[in-house]
Each structure stands twice: as structure tokens, then as C-alpha cells.
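To start, one record:
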Amino acid sequence: MSPLTIDTEVDVADKPKPLSRRQRDMLDIITRSLDEHGRAPTIREIADVMGVASTNGVNDHLNALIKKGYVQLESGVARGVRPLHYADARRFMTRKELLDELDELRARVEELEGHRPRIARPRPRQAPALPSSDAASLSG
């Protein structure tokens, strides 16, 4: 089996170029995998979901998505396909980026907790007691 060649040059214009139905399907497979599993699919997994035996067709559609500016490819990584043009880019952070950010957040929280006193939680409010005449009228 020959290695697949992925073209990483992106033609980014002001307006995204239209996608074919299969390209839209592939982009949906990629984003669904990220949403459900927290990682991008491999080319073989994309081929399986699309119902094709060869990964060459997947490679062609992936190259088209790259050229049209819908995805980028992190070189040397099996699950390195990352969608572009999304409002919340954090959804598509790599695992390492996410873990690094979590470490930074934990360190910041620890720093903040060390500089301020802990505030006791307020107790839940209790309903005021009804006068005995009101309580009798409600019960009977």
C-alpha cells in the first residue's frame, strides 16, 4: 500500500468556497468525531464511515477541504485533521493544548485561593413561620 499524500497548502479567501455533498459529509464526520470522542478520525475511519474501501477517495476530498480552507492538517499526526471557521476554536484543541490549558487554569486557581480568604457558603433561607391563625386556615 502506498503512503497517502496530503496537500497542506490552503487557499483561504474571504468567502468559503462551496463544498460538494461528499466534502460536506466528510467535514460532518470530522466534526462529529471531535464532538463525540474529543479527537479527529483517521483517514481509514473516515473511509469506513463513508462506506468506501479505498482511502484514496478520502485523501482527494481531504485535499479539497484543505485547499478550500475548511480544515488544516497537523503534519505527522494520525488524527491531525482540524476544522477551521468555527466560532469556538477551543472545541478543536489538540489533547496536549487542552492539557496545557488545564494546567495553567489549575495553577491560577491555586494562586487565587492562596491570596484570598475562603468565603463561607451562605445558609439556605428558611421560609418564615406562619402565624397560628394563618396555619389553621390553610390546613382545613
Summary: The chain is about 45% helix and 5% strand. The domain at 21-87 is CATH 1.10.10.10 (Arc Repressor Mutant, subunit A). Helices lie at 21-37, 43-50, 56-67, 95-115, 132-139.
